[in-house]
Each structure stands twice: as structure tokens, then as C-alpha cells.
Amino acid sequence: MGRLIGLLPTVAAFVAFILSILCLFAGTQKNLLSSADILTLYTSTVGNGTEAHDFYSIHVMTYCEGFMNSKEERNLTGCSKRSMLFSFDPSEVLLEETGNTTSLDRLGWPSAISEDFRAFKITYQSLGVFYCIGVGLAGLAILVRLFFMLFRRTRQSAIELASLLIGFVMISIASIITTVIMFQFVNLVNYHGEASDVSAKHGREFLAMSWAAAGLLLVGSVASLAMVLVDRGRAEEEPPSPPPRPDTPKSEMAGDAESIKSAKSKY
């Protein structure tokens, strides 16, 4: 039972590591959790008759695009190249796809939405950095525990605790930014795109994975902290070890020297 409790921080870190990896790399390929997006921008009424897509599914490091079928189901056609400092610029994408080198006004695209995305550019670019740091720290916590297991050390390490705690902070910050983007930013896009029938919708699957990873790292941090305190308390209660006994040859020589001294004193 004690061993199972001792592995709780490692198990929590492992599951959080997997979830954070999925958040980071979702949408980097068509068949890799493309439905787990942060938000989807629907532009089906913009530039009818051109090459613009019906929707753009925006992830942490990429965006995917496609068309809607007659059943209002999404049909992905491809995804962009991944970038750690990724941010989506709808004006740039639409200009490239439609071949319009001057302005998107004639296509019915509201310029206010482009300004919204530019305003959130730096904030959005930070997502990849926070998730990457969180993934690295969760992985470090796992490696530290495996290292100590190889050397048969059962006590919790301060390095493991620090990795879990800082990892929790990083993933939590990323989750908070994602939550703001999903709700506040999506509402802003819907407000500015209402007249042009441009809309956005947030992704629940991604948000659930991100907060689940943060929650697991918090559980692992609390469990690791509790075990570090318990181990420290046990170390303080242990009595000091007795000094090493002198080896036999030295004690025998000391005894012979005392015998010689006593014999000389008699004479």
C-alpha cells in the first residue's frame, strides 16, 4: 500500500504528460486529434466562388482547414506546418487562398475580426511555450522517479516535487489562456462577424484535456509534498547511529601497552 501511494505522483505526472503532449500536437496532422481544437472559425459565406475554405480549425501549433458537406459535417482537406510560436491570421490565409492581393472587403470579410486575431497574437503564441515547458517538467518528474527506483531509493525527491509544482503552474497558465480565448475571444469574433455571417465556436475536448493535465499535476504535487514532509519527519525521529567500535588489533595493542606500563610501575 505504501508503495502504491509513493507512486501516485509519478502516475499523475505520466498521465498529465500524455494529455499535455496531445494538447500540444493536436491538429498537426489530419488524423491526429483534429477535432480537439481551441476554436473553429466558420467562413462559408466569405468569398463565394473562390478557393476559400468553409472553416478553419485552430490548434496550438497549427490550423486545419476544410469544407462542410450537405449534412453540416466537417471534411478536413489539410493542415498547416506546425510552429512553436504559431498564431492564426485569417486575413493572410484568406488573401492567399482567394488570390486577392489588395483587400478582403469585396469578399465580405469583416476587418474587425482580423484586428481581434492580431490583438491576441502574442498571447496565442505563448501557448506553445507554456505547454512545451509543462511537458518537459512532467517528463523530468518521471525520469527522476525512475532514476531513484533504479538505485532503490524510496524517499521523495525535492527535484521531483519542484518539477511537478512548476509543471502545474505552466499548464495552468496555458489552460487559463485557452479558456479566455475560447470564451471571451470567441464571443468577440461572433460579435464582429454577426453582420457578415462569420462565426466561431470553441472546442470542449481540448479544454477538458488541458485542465485534466493541470489537475493531475496538482494532485501529484500535493502528494509529493506530503511524502517529502513525512520522510523529513522520519529522518528527524531516527536516533543517531552509535560511533564505530575500534577494530580488534588496535584494542589489543592498547591493552598490551597498558600491561607494560603497569608492570614497570611495580618495579
Automatic annotation (TrEMBL):
Pfam families: SUR7. The chain crosses the membrane at residues 7-27, 128-151, 163-186, 206-230. InterPro entries: SUR7/Rim9-like_fungi (IPR009571), SUR7_domain (IPR052413). GO terms for cellular component: cell cortex of cell tip; plasma membrane. GO terms for biological process: fungal-type cell wall organization. Keywords: Membrane, Transmembrane, Transmembrane helix. Residues 233-267 are annotated as: Disordered. This is SUR7-domain-containing protein. It comes from Aspergillus steynii IBT 23096.
